[in-house]
Amino acid sequence: MLTINNLKASVEDKEILKGINLEVKKGEVHAIMGPNGSGKSTLAAVLAGRSDYEVTDGTVDYLGQNLLEMAPEDRAKEGIFLAFQYPVEIPGVNTATFLRTSLNEIREHRGLEPLNGADFLKLMKSKMEIIDIDKSLISRSLNEGFSGGEKKKAEIFQMAMLEPTLAILDETDSGLDIDALKVVAAGVNRMKTDDNAVIVITHYQRLLDYIIPDFVHIIYDGQIIKTGGKELAITLEEKGYDWITNEHAALSNA
Amino acid sequence: MNGQNEILKEVTQQDYKYGFVSKFDSDKAPVGLNEGIIRLISSKKKEPKWMLDIRLKAFKHWLTLVDKEPNWAHIKYPKINFQDIIYYSAPKKKKKLKSLDEVDPEMLKTFEKLGISIDEQKKLTGVAVDIVIDSVSVKTTFKETLAKLGIIFCSFSEAVHEHPELVKKYMGSVVPYTDNFYAALNSAVFTDGSFCYIPKGVRCPMELSTYFRINEANTGQFERTLLIAEEGSYVSYLEGCTAPMRDENQLHAAVVELIAYKDAEIRYSTVQNWYPGDKNGKGGIFNFVTKRGICKGERSKISWTQVETGSAITWKYPSVILKGDYSVGEFYSIALTNNYQQADTGTKMIHIGKNTTSTIISKGVSAGKSNNSYRGLVRISKSATNARNFSQCDSLLLSDECGAHTFPYIEINNKSAIVEHEATTSKVGEDQIFYCNQRGLSTEQAISMIVNGYCKEVLKKLPMEFAVEAQKLLSLSLEGSVG
Amino acid sequence: MKASTGKLSTAEDFIANFDIHQDEIFLNNSNQYKELRKNAIAAFESLGIPSRRSEEWKYTNVAKALNRDWVQFPSETKKISPDDIDSCLIPGLDAYTLVFYNGKRIPFSESDSDSAVIKEFSDLISSDISNVVSLDLGSDAFDTLNLAFAIDGAIINVPDNCVLDKPLYLLYISSPDDNLFIQNRNVIEIGKNSEATIIEARISLSSSNDFQVFSNNVTEIHCENNSKLDHYQFQIKGQSGAASINKYLVKQEANSTYTSTNINLGGQLVRNNLEVVHEGEGCETNLFGLYHLIGNQHLDNHTLIDHKMPNCNSNELYIGVLDDKSTGVFNGKVLVRKDAQKTNAFQSNKNILLTDDAKMNAKPQLEIYADDVKCSHGATTGQLNQEALFYLRSRGISKKLALTMLMEAFMKEVLDKIKIKELKNFLTEKLELRLNVGDQGR
After folding, report:
1. Contact A90, C391 (CB under 8 A)
2. pTM of the prediction?
């Protein structure tokens, strides 16, 4: 589904990604872990098409298309969904109106009829139950005045609505208490099918107790330096990032 | 509130601490202004012909402006009779002075009374002082130290003689004589001022300072300052002004030009406490100043900081032309007016280069029957992609008879600009004063403290030794004004 | 009556017309009104047409717009079709409607003329006017010009203790191609304890070429004690043919509330002067403005809130989006006089520039002579939030639609101030149409 080959990207002339290689097949859950500043969020932003980052080298193939050449909205229409680490507040844009516009744009791209108001409401209601999101949030301006937890839940709710092919969760667990974390994880698990894939970006292992990854990648200084199964996350949690970075240093020095 | 008014009055009514007249002989031109006077000034100063030509050209231009004095400012004053002013007055020089000991003791006493003894300055702070009394620079200290670094710091007249190529190149390049009425007048009759040149890559090791002082009754003071910072250099320049008490209004029309090349930084700080007139609005200085700097090169920076507590009328807009890409302009100002003082001051930030940034922080404090206006222009030219400006203009009112005004002009011609202007006007909170009272502070102390706190953002931009003086000045200017 | 055609670029041009058309101007005038007109034209003569050297006209070149052939007293103008009038009505809105076509009131609906609050213009000019029209000629050239010449306008008088059951719709339509110079003078009085809603529409049917109609209008509004007026003004169409100067002089008595909501989408050169003065304590003033400018449109909003009395509040919010080569000016002044203690005054102006050829000049001013006040103003100019734009796009929304959504969201703050549903829908639709046309259709 997604093949990243030697991806390099920089912001304001500073290289952040220094050659990322990653392959994600349908039905898989990948976790990307790493210390602060290692390039985790940059990778998510580059995949979603944020223009602040300049891709200097490498390729990204998504469902047979050159992802890097696509506009952010076209990526979304093709099924890429980024759950933002810091969802932006947009005063004056009603959440429901926004979601309906978004959904219908994506449906149109998939050759589906746009949803009418009633069907949209019905769909929204069913998805809201999954995420256990406060109804009043829907009638407010997009993310405006939402608490940190509400924002994260709203992101997962949007994901449930848009049914992406590839979902990228950028530190969705940060700022969530354990109950909210469980709700979010349950939401993600319910959406998981054999035809879609999830990339979970996280600093801590605890989310991975609830969303079980098939692969865990450790990113450090802009490169994936170790890949393993779900047990890698547990080892990492026990030994800390120093373990892996020291090991990496030792290897590079050797 | 009434009690407060009483105290405010008491504080403002205190006499001007710096009101005294030093007695030393001076060499004066006759009253009035004509070509003859200009030739006289020029010949007194033994100027070369090119300098005289500039003066005459400016004078010719000024004649076309007579009766076209600027009138847009929010100030009121009787019409100035420009033929009723003495345009030149110099303390009679007895001989060239080698050290402070040789300076007229009377003059040294004057400085002592001002609380700015050169001696003390020299020993304690290492400030190089270029003293200007009634328009002629008497003595420049620390010159030699500076000379070793290639820094030129001297009187303007000296620069005309010794560095004519620099003066010719830069004088009028930022403020041409055609700029405005007072700039034309200054260019015609300026008597002296300071000149400063910082060579490439040199960081001036000390604060450069000039103390201006208007001394002779009825003498117009027409200073001219020119400061050039070459590529990668840095200089911090302090200008302090005091003037003795006089009954007639004295006119001051200075011109200051700053030029910053690539990566250079100029910090220009002013503390102005010229005689503001008495509590009935009699006397005081009229201060009509044109100050402007240009950030010529990339990443150059010009920062104006001013504390204005003096003068009967202040008309002053230290400005920055942001020509170099990534250049930075700053304006930090405190203007405190009391009794019948009027201040119309602010800045102009002209963004031309890309990614240029400007910051304006203005704090106005009005007491008594004074009027205090902020007037500022932020212009984002079409070429100034990604320009940023933030302006904050706050006014504090200390009496119910004063006025506080904000007149910002914002002109945006580029879509990528982000410009924010905020202004607030409020009075000193009675609850704040009460709180201080309850903790044992007098109302006067409380207000002084609150005002100082209110001005902190700007005060902290001043060099250390200046900040202390400025703080004292604020309290002093407020004395008796509390109410 | 002969039509005089000519440039109106100097005061003399107008004075000449005043002399030639005295019969028409003085028709049915009381002696006092005649005197008033004569004084006005004399005042205008000494003031002259303001140039850009005048501080109040620094950013708007009105002389240029006047410098072409105008017809001030047309013999007849193109007829207006019922369809044209219908196109200017607000769908679904039930209102007392007055229609002015090229400056002259035309019959619209019989029932409406019966409404007791609508008076005839002749009532004004034939009566003792001293207590109706402000006699202070002031220093505004266009105000004096209007006073001298205006021979028609809406005269509204809501009596004391009366809540008007439906809005008044004042519709000013101008025709294309006649090069008319139009002046209306309106006087609106809201009696003690009364409430009314007035919607004022300025619609120019002109569509192409530069300046085909120039209107100079003055509206005097008097809100009596404890009264409430919701005053909406909007201008649509004519973005490349109509110039207008609209002055509103609002006098508020004690405990009255005046709310003005000005939506500007049309007109090639528009200058709005809105001056509100508090004559009594406890007044509340809300001034809201919204503009979306395209092409070569030039809009200059001048507001003045004169806080003369204690315990009054004012609240001002002007929001605009400037596209293409348009120019916006916001000049808002809050004046707090010596006696106006306990004043709260807030002012905000927010702009977004969409192109490098668009210009915004803002001059928010505070002039304060009382100390126990809370006043603030803010002015910002910037771009749409790029972060928000990316967020929307990452959810599959096209860049164009995302931009439209963000612009609408930005302008919503003022649109939401419109309390009449039909009007809000009507204007929202007009606005959306403009936003959706995007770069293509203009």
Report:
1. yes
2. 0.81
Element housing B472 (H / E)? helix B464-478
Identity (one letter) of the amino acid at A26? K
User: C17: which residues sit within 8 A by CB, 6+ positions away?
Assistant: C4, C8, C72, C73, C149
Of C319, C209, C218, the closest CA to residue C268 belongs to C209
Contact by Cβ (8 Å): B188, B176? no
CA-wise closest residue to C373 among C338, C339, C344: C344
**How far away is chain A from the Cα of C395, in angstroms, using its nearest Cα?**
5
B near A: at least 3 beta-carbon pairs less than 8 Å apart: no
CA–CA dist C15, C36 (Å, integer): 15
**Identity of the residue in C376, C381, C383 whose CB atom sits nearest the CB atom of B410:** C381
Q: Does C410 touch chain A (CB under 8 A)?
A: yes
In this structure, is residue B483 part of a structural domain? no
| Structural domain count of chain B | 1
Query: Measuring CA to CA, which residue among B421, B387, B389 is closest to residue B407?
Result: B421
Query: Is residue B80 assigned to a domain?
Result: yes
Neighbours of B61 (CB within 10 A): 18
Does A162 contact C at CB distance below 8 Å?
yes
pLDDT tens for B109-140 read 545 544 544 544 443 334 455 555 554 444 45
- A105 phi/psi in degrees, rounded to 5: -60, -45
Does C405 contact chain A (CB < 8 Å)?
Answer: yes
State ipTM: 0.80
- Token pair of C420 as six digits: 């009449």
The CA–CA distances, whole Å, from A9 to A221, A248, B39 equal: 12, 21, 68
Residue B127 near residue B143 (C-beta atoms within 8 A): no
**8 Å CB contact of C391 and A76:** no
Contacting C residues, span 328-347, partner chain B, CB-CB under 8 Å: 338, 341
**Contact (CB, 8 A) for C371 and B395:** no
Higher-confidence position of B290 and B220? B290
B 409-428: CB under 8 A from C? 409-427
Q: Does B408 touch chain C (CB under 8 A)?
A: yes
A77 shares contact with chain C (CB less than 8 Å) = yes
Parts of chain A with a pLDDT under 50:
none
- Asked if residue A60 lies in contact with residue A2, where contact means CB atoms within 8 angstroms, the answer is yes
The CA angle C36-C41-C47, to the nearest 5 degrees, is 125
